[in-house]
Please model this.
Amino acid sequence: MIALKFGGTSVANAENINKTINIVAEKSKSKKLAVVVSAFSGVTDLLILAGKSASAKDKNYKNIVAEIEKKHKEAIDELIPLSEQSEIIDVINSNINHLKTLLDGCYLLGELSNRTADIVAGFGELLSSQIIATALKQKVSNSSFKDSRELIKTDNNFGKASVNFTETNTLINNYFKNNNQQVTIFPGFIASSADGNTTTLGRGGSDYTAAIIAAAINAEVLEIWTDVNGMFTANPKIVKQAQPIETISYQEAMELSHFGAKVLYPPTIQPVLKDNIPILIKNTFEPEANGTLISNNPSSNNNPIKGISHIDKIALLTLEGSGMVGVSGSSKRLFEVLSIENINVIFITQASSEHSICIGILNSDAENAEKAINKAFELEIAQGKIDKCIVEKDLCIVALVGESMKNHQGISGKMFSTLGKNNVNIRAIAQGASERNISVVINEKDVKKALNTLHERFFEDNTKQLNLFVMGVGNVGEKFIDQINQQKKFLKENRRINVRVIALANSRKMVFDEDAINLKDWKTALDNGETANVESFISRVKELNLRNSIFVDITANYDVAGIYDQFLSKNIAVVTCNKIACSSEFNNYKNLKDLSRKYNAPFLFETNVGAGLPIIDTLKLLIASGDKVNRINAVLSGSLNFIFNNFSESYSFHDVVKEAGVQGFTEPDPKIDLSGVDVARKILILIRESGYQMDMEEIENNCFLPDECMKTTNNDDFFASLINHEAHFNKLLIEAKEKDSRIKFVASFNNGKAAVGLQFIPKESPFYNLEGKDNIVEFYTDRYVDQPLIIKGAGAGAAVTASGIFADIVRIGNV
Ligand code: ADP
Ligand code: ASP
Ligand code: MG
Model:
């Protein structure tokens, strides 16, 4: 024989019940079956609500009952031919009338006893099982219904009764001895006490009903049919990458379900374990999928971790004080109190000093527990030997489970560092003596991030997901998005980096998609987005609280440069091509660097100097390896280089500057480039990254623009002023010719002093042949004394800047 159980979703409506019936009918061809069914999905919740409403004198219970009645009658209509309906309709009517009478009583009395609550809650299974049994008869004539209450005997602990196995096993065995049906349908969840009261086995208890029957009849296998493809490596609703576990041991499955894997009600394993009856978890909606086999001898793979589970709505209670040290019996008293109050303890840690003991319970039990504990330790509290119990709510337990964890070192280290890197604060830690699980208590708001990062770390072959929030989709931004779109697959397959763009914004619109924006059609998504608002952009990024979040600033905006601290202090990395922050006041720059270090959030700005050229990264490596930068000479303006390389008798200064703008080499405001401010910012950033403290005012700017050009306040006036002063610029050209040299805008740092300005570069200088929009930097260091370390290449342009930003993203992915 085999025992099967179909859960709430598998019997949610006529369509699903037909799927269930097909599976049962097919299996019944070769085996005798004991089939346990749950209530229709959601019905138990409705019944509990109806009971509460009635006892609270809220007439809404009547609507709830009507809704329940309707659901079941609709199912009958769809499942059973009209001519066969009368008997089952009578059964349903009589059950519904009984339910109504009970609830009317609760309403009149204004109370709901635990005993009545169990009768009410049990109606869901009674209704569903009788309808399903009648519908099944159409396909399998040799089948019948049996009320589990006649066979499963419990104590009177309503809500979660304990089974009397001796009596129950005898009753079940006798029943099957005297009945020879091919299929018997049982309602799950309900049982009865010795004095005939209906009891229930705890929420989710239909799994347990099936296990009790499976054990009694020594079934070949216990099949739990549900709405997912087995027990997953993590809750598939929260971790999209979770995978079904093929095989798992009883103990591992028990730990996973104890720590919240709802797919299996924790007590289910215990009855089948002793007879080695395997449990197979299957999906009613994908019956061909393998599912998960829980048994004594699961096949092993190399991963010591089998799964990650979690329980939310947890409260942590801490009892501490010198009065607990060396005094035997404190913990015994603590647990006794909790047991008297019927409070389930999910998690325990005790410091080895015995100074404090910390327990995890459900939020909903916290107040009762607090009161009871403070009462029990009243005397010690009054004497100041023990502090009043401390309660923290809205926490969550996350547990790593795996039998062979004990044979592997460093798992807890990996777990803690993974959480730490993502700024998930661990409130308490416990490891079972069996080393089958390590569990931590964290804040509920971090649970999604924690589960996903841990899953990534332990199950996804080290693939790292990066979640980008991009502000600025102009020239560079557009190229950047194209490049990501192009490289996404390669990065995932070859570098194990999964880059996802979660948000895009420009000055008008913004769009968020937690499941990643489709980059093929990002423009439409952005156009259809909401009105841009920096404050709400920031709060959305924080609220989403995704792992490896990166804010990408592709603007040249002053205000945007001012929000980095809000990201870094939330462990959100910042990648920027906007130079404003790093060239602002030294204290601001330092604060950002400090926040980055403190919150473990990378702050990368390679494209601040030389676009995509690896200048800052190289500098960082020099410094990290103990070198010291003594002198820097550089041509750092791609746009000025382009301008002076092209400026000639036949190509006026004004026209060249215009062209540089068209090609995207200048800042949106070209005066920033031509006035030398942009170059000054760049050398300042290099100086700071070399470890020196300096501010903008300390850089000597030998500006070559006439005053009138400098005084203009908009681009049109600025360009007009360039025409007015054509003679001034032509003079520079003549001087260069006379000196047989070329004009370059050079930045230098030497002996603690920095300057920027035009220089006439002679032929023998490496700067002389700098073509197009190229940049060049010479670093003279303790190790590069006579011959500098030179970095040279294209230093401006949308594509190279975009690839520089991309490189920073990949750097974060490689950490
Ligand atoms: P049923 O009504 O069939 O008993 P449940 O809702 O009780 O189904 O359990 C199945 C659900 O358990 C899944 O839909 C899934 O959301 C949830 N779940 C939580 N953790 C896990 C896990 N580790 N593996 C599979 N499912 C899980
Ligand atoms: N119907 C019950 C519940 O919702 C039992 C079950 O479905 O397993 O808790
Ligand atoms: Mg269930």
